[in-house]
């Protein structure tokens, strides 16, 4: 991005402007020892702001101020007023803010400015915005601002067609990326093209179980799986694939906290264990004599107390509430 | 054995209260919030007498925006507090109608400072503040932080609730609409995203639960009401919060991300949820880690001081708010509320801070020694 090699005091177009100095007011607390270039730019900005000037030189000055401090929302606001007054090419402005966003990908004001522009440019800009967030996410696949912007663009301007596929791609690259799992949930619940959660639930359960079996220590798909039946716990219990994946994982590793936790949820929601499944718990019972006559939910709590020591107090409390209910 | 170097921390806050280096220019719009950290920190270290309360009161109040004689309050301008001089244009000849850009977060910081130093908030024109606060509330219940347009998310719902709570006057917001927005932010996994549909996030979850609590929609010890489904899904919230503590003892802000000490603060939402767990014997754990914690906190201070004098490349503007807020929070709990020392949350908080700082310095050490650090491990996400 082109920027002035010297401060505004040397710009010919600002020769007639009298800079307005910064005034910290009475007895400032935590005053900042501003560098000279910062002070100079803000003094000139103040001068143009108070006169309400809407001109190309004012626009250039805001660019300078933004480069020094992209977090100043007053400068961004002034810039927007100028852009409107000059009927500036908003596609050019999108390019400008894009370059700044790449250097400051976690700055709220920049993303807000992009949203303001996108609102004005309409659905035609949707694809470009999705390309942009994809670029940011390629550097940091969990950038919260990028995801928020992407979700907003989808809902306001469209572009749902390839979003599920994008989630697939991100999860192939990193199946632990919880932002991608969240986006997947966003797509299957809100996309106008997929028919809604109940329509895709079946295939999503299969997809998620495959991810779980590949990496049972990855918490994301476990939570996603439960989320597929959000508000419909009876259906969660009735779907044999759910309890099935718990036991499949536990057969290999009975200390898998996520499998135990989901199993506990199912048992508390009324899952009745078949004799075959009960027998899966037997080896675990025998190595935990204190669970000899306990119901399956209590057995699971006991195991969790042992293999999830960071949360031992929680599982103890949970076990206690089980006996209160029964 | 290291002692907690309280005097170093006091000197640190004293120093920043006097002046911040030029690198802080990027934090200029958050000037009032930085002051809040300094004042809050000194207060928690029982050293508030070092500052001149009258001068600070005058300085903070000078940021308040008052309506002009012919201002129409219904137009929608917010009459709160500006966060800095660069967003405040008190000059009478300002043509721009948006000269007054007070902000919800600055207003929160201003009121918090005033409360800490004992100023009677009844003396400020809070009626106009609250009337105009309500105008910032959006149709979906969220809040815009300024009237010139900005992002709306849970942070500002929390700010609004905190402002009303400090002023003890809830005419500034439609609480039911705010609650509706918060509920819409609860994700499929029990945590709260910053906006509806967003990934569950430690900061968002804190803002949601704290705001609901301040508004009176949930009570302390909500774990005892865990089967109450009239508001948020408490069971899932509880599990989400608890699962955010990772093997190194620290708290992550989101699933499968690295732990960060700031999330030990946001996780204090657990305080409300797990009050019933206080009997489980945390005193021994706290006593065991007190020394490492104090050592780690001292090291954290040195990071700031080394950055200030240029010994390391750590950006002071980034580390100051982080470490300042950590000190504020830790000592706020430990010093102000000694009865919480045995609480599970404080115990896990101090453990996580110690261990997390050790990992952070290992990261910096590797970077300095080898020029790189391996990032493709699950610890670093």
TrEMBL record, chain A:
Pfam families recorded: PPTA (PF01239)
Cofactor(s) the record lists: Mg(2+)
Keywords: Magnesium, Prenyltransferase, Repeat, Transferase
Top-level EC class as recorded in UniProt: transferase
GO molecular function: CAAX-protein geranylgeranyltransferase activity; protein farnesyltransferase activity
GO cellular component, one term: CAAX-protein geranylgeranyltransferase complex
UniProt catalytic activity: geranylgeranyl diphosphate + L-cysteinyl-[protein] = S-geranylgeranyl-L-cysteinyl-[protein] + diphosphate; L-cysteinyl-[protein] + (2E,6E)-farnesyl diphosphate = S-(2E,6E)-farnesyl-L-cysteinyl-[protein] + diphosphate
EC numbers, comma separated: 2.5.1.58, 2.5.1.59
SUPFAM superfamilies cross-referenced by the UniProt entry: Protein prenylyltransferase
Gene3D superfamilies registered for this protein in UniProt: Protein prenylyltransferase (1.25.40.120)
Family: Belongs to the protein prenyltransferase subunit alpha family.
Role according to the record: Essential subunit of both the farnesyltransferase and the geranylgeranyltransferase complex. Contributes to the transfer of a farnesyl or geranylgeranyl moiety from farnesyl or geranylgeranyl diphosphate to a cysteine at the fourth position from the C-terminus of several proteins having the C-terminal sequence Cys-aliphatic-aliphatic-X.
Record's protein name: Protein farnesyltransferase/geranylgeranyltransferase type-1 subunit alpha
Organism per entry: Miscanthus lutarioriparius
UniProtKB/TrEMBL annotation, chain B:
Protein location: Membrane
UniProt feature coiled coil, ranges: none
GO cellular component: CAAX-protein geranylgeranyltransferase complex; membrane
Functional pathway: Lipid metabolism; fatty acid biosynthesis
Protein's organism: Miscanthus lutarioriparius
Family affiliation: Belongs to the very long-chain fatty acids dehydratase HACD family. Belongs to the protein prenyltransferase subunit beta family.
Protein name: very-long-chain (3R)-3-hydroxyacyl-CoA dehydratase
Keywords: Fatty acid biosynthesis, Fatty acid metabolism, Lipid biosynthesis, Lipid metabolism, Lyase, Membrane, Metal-binding, Prenyltransferase, Repeat, Transferase, Transmembrane, Transmembrane helix, Zinc
Cofactor: Zn(2+)
Membrane topology of this protein: Multi-pass membrane protein
GO MF term list: CAAX-protein geranylgeranyltransferase activity; metal ion binding; very-long-chain (3R)-3-hydroxyacyl-CoA dehydratase activity
EC annotation from Swiss-Prot or TrEMBL: 4.2.1.134
GO biological process, one term: fatty acid biosynthetic process
Record-linked InterPro entries: PGGT1B-like (IPR045089), Prenyltrans (IPR001330), Terpenoid_cyclase/PrenylTrfase (IPR008930), Tyr_Pase-like_PTPLA (IPR007482)
Residue ranges occupied by any Prenyltransferase alpha-alpha toroid domain in the UniProt entry: 8-270
Spans through the membrane: none
Pfam families: Prenyltrans, PTPLA
Keyword Transport: no
